[in-house]
Amino acid sequence: MISIEVKPYVLLKKHVFRIAGGARTSTPLVLVRLKYNDFEGYGEASMPPLYGETIASAQAFIKTLDFSTISYPFNLESISEYLDCRAKGNTAAKAAIDMALHDLIGKIENVPLYQYFDLPKAELKTSKTIGIDSAKIIEQRVAEADAFQFLKIKLGGDNDEEIIKAVRHVTDKPVFVDANQGWTNKEEALDKIEWLEDENIVFIEQPMPKTAYSDMEWLVSRSPLPLIGDEGIQRLEEVKTASRFYHGINIKLMKSTGLHEAFKMAKMAKSLNLKIMLGCMSETSCAIGAAAHLGAMADWIDLDGNLGVANDPYQGHDVKNGIIHLNDTSGIGLINPNWDNI
């Protein structure tokens, strides 16, 4: 029989993080530990305000769950259906449970999760995310990220050109651009994309509001750069029609309810010839480590959510020169998680 422990936690960012939708210095989390016989599995719910979940809502949802009937081998399909039937939304809270169950499976079977998913072990070149800021601060952040081979730059405010000029004043390395729904006029969005095409930009993530369906259909047929859906593509069902609006999708565990559905999303995206980006929120090494096991399926990796925080309670996979090196610890890959001292 499975038992569960839950801890609220506030993850503090090293710098103020600004996107088109606002700014913050912290992220509320709920940390989860599942126990099954002599095994422990870890998970987390990361809940930026944009997605509507809170520590209180996550704890309340988790309290409604009955683990008494779950035994090994875990039927993840039926468990996922059960979680979805308990309440709508709550995707981060569901991801925390899913993640901890996968961690348990890996430990019981004594395999790292990439092996459980029958994927190769990959060295993952993650981007380093830099939020909206003044030109001076942008240049500092870019310089600090010199070890990374890719940058992810937030646009969508009123100083897009200033930001890109500041980046290019420091480096010519390839850049992922994330507008976070900040461009609201399709013609202006296309003008910006055509301008960015000459700035060594790899793709544009979520250029327009997620419900601007007709505008995105218009834009995706004209954009000279790939368009990637983030806020606009959250669950498996939305992948089926994603190619109407995007060239690729950003899969995040906190949106997809965890690894089980994220894996299915990636397989479906590949079958539809959609590009795959593997992304994150501000997270600890637990959630980042879990997502990294799917890295071999992705065209682009943006798993730096644990690198910009000041109080990560866990240690996971090493990151050197912007490359995530998967370890072979069973399950997620956490190194001696010290739950009792968190």
UniProtKB/TrEMBL annotation:
Residues 135-226 form the Mandelate racemase/muconate lactonizing enzyme C-terminal domain. The keyword Oxidoreductase does not apply. Keywords: Isomerase, Magnesium, Metal-binding. Its cofactor is Mg(2+). The keyword Magnesium applies. Its EC number is 5.1.1.-. It is an enzyme of class 5 (isomerase). The active site is at K154, K252. GO terms for molecular function: magnesium ion binding; racemase and epimerase activity, acting on amino acids and derivatives. This is Dipeptide epimerase. It comes from Formosa algae.
